[in-house]
Amino acid sequence: MAMTMHLNVVSAEEELFSGTVEEVFAPGTMGDLGIIPRHAQLVTTLKAGELRYVTNGHMASLFVSGGIMEVQPHVVTVLADTAIRADDLDEKAAEDAMERAEAALEGKDPEDLNYEALQAELEAAKAQIQMIHNIGKTLGRH
Q1: DSSP 3-state assignment of 46?
Q2: Cα–Cα distance between 123 and 103 in angstroms, integer?
Q3: What is the C-alpha separation between 81 and 79, in angstroms, rounded?
Q4: Which of 69, 56, 38 is closest to 2 using CA atoms?
Q5: Are residues 121 and 55 in the same domain?
Q6: CA 29 to centroid of chain Cα atoms
Q7: Are 42 and 16 in the same domain?
Q8: DSSP count for the chain of H helices, then E strands
Q9: Residue ranges making up the domain that contains 123
């Protein structure tokens, strides 16, 4: 029997996952992280990207727009800014969000812009599109 740990993934809106997992792969701001049971304790920030986890031998994934992850030897907690189940991702909505953010960055008075917020929105949209394409490749869709 494989060693396991407990994973909790929550956002301000809802709890997205709570259960036993064998591994967690997270998009850390300083690079991707792989977490297995008995991992050293750490707290890290997350960037927009795919949060993957293995449960009962099967890989599952969620999109996170950023957040914080706390790792304890037998518990991993992800506090996501926002999170979306892989099945709920919408490529058209992500493309529209990316176009809106790019247009805002290009055409507005610099004093009226919140560059950090627009850049975060742009990066989240790009990460969603990349995740959709990765999942499509994994599932044999194009």
Answers
A1: strand
A2: 14
A3: 7
A4: 56
A5: no
A6: 11
A7: yes
A8: 2, 10
A9: 89-139
Where do the DSSP E strands lie in the chain?
5-11, 15-21, 23-28, 31-35, 42-46, 49-55, 58-64, 67-71, 75-80, 83-85
pLDDT at 139: 45
Closest C-alpha to 55, from 82, 99, 24, 32: 24
Give the pTM: 0.70
Residue 77 one-letter amino acid = T
Q: Which two tokens stand for residue 44?
A: 């890290």
Q: Are strands 5-11 and 75-80 parallel, antiparallel or unpaired?
A: parallel
Could you tell me if 118 and 78 lie in one domain? Answer: no
Same domain, 33 and 81: yes
Pair (29, 81) in one structural domain: yes
DSSP 8-state secondary structure symbol assigned to residue 47? -
Is the domain of 80 the same as that of 15? Answer: yes
- Model pLDDT, residue 111: 55
- 123 lies in the same domain as 98: yes
Q: Are residues 10 and 79 in the same domain?
A: yes
What does the pLDDT average to over 30-44?
96
Q: Which amino acid is at 73?
A: P
Q: With 70 as the cut, is the pLDDT of residue 109 above it? A: no
**Proportion of the chain above pLDDT 70, given as a percent:** 72
